[in-house]
Amino acid sequence: MEAIPTKITNVQQLVEALKNKDQGISYLHIMSSIDIPEREYERFYTWKLSHYTRNCLVKTADFELLLICWEKGQQSSIHDFDSREAWIHPLRGRLTEERFRLKDGRLEKVSSVLLGTSEFSYMTDPIAIHRYTNSYESRSVSLNLYAQPIEKWNEYDEKTGKVVAKNVSYDAVYVFDEEGNIRSY
What we know:
Jelly Rolls, three-stranded antiparallel β-sheet, globular
């Protein structure tokens, strides 16, 4: 098995490091090894004025890696996910992360933090009800790694606490072949 590079300097190396991860290496170690210039990610960006975009760089049975592109002021719904763990790393701009819990059938905000490009957020099931907002003066981009791909999530109404199950989709899907060539779908 190939060793994880000390510095991961392009998206193909990142994809390969994640695919070849062994039990002795943590996802956080891989994410912390990233030293990829933003221009390397730009070919994977998609933008929509109506909503943030979910761009899948790689998906296996064990994980998925997404680039989330946020226009100014865009925010996610309050939601959870069916993944075991998640790491969120802003690459450009700033995101406000709000975490919630259900208390007596109502949502209660338990934290709010501003994430910049030098920070990571980590989530696991017990603290997974959350919302992200682009708090930057222009576009933001986050790199999201989920240990177990997300197939569905629950969305929560902030006023009533009502929960609605939603299937998750992508705005773009990219595939890397053995030679490092990229195709989009």
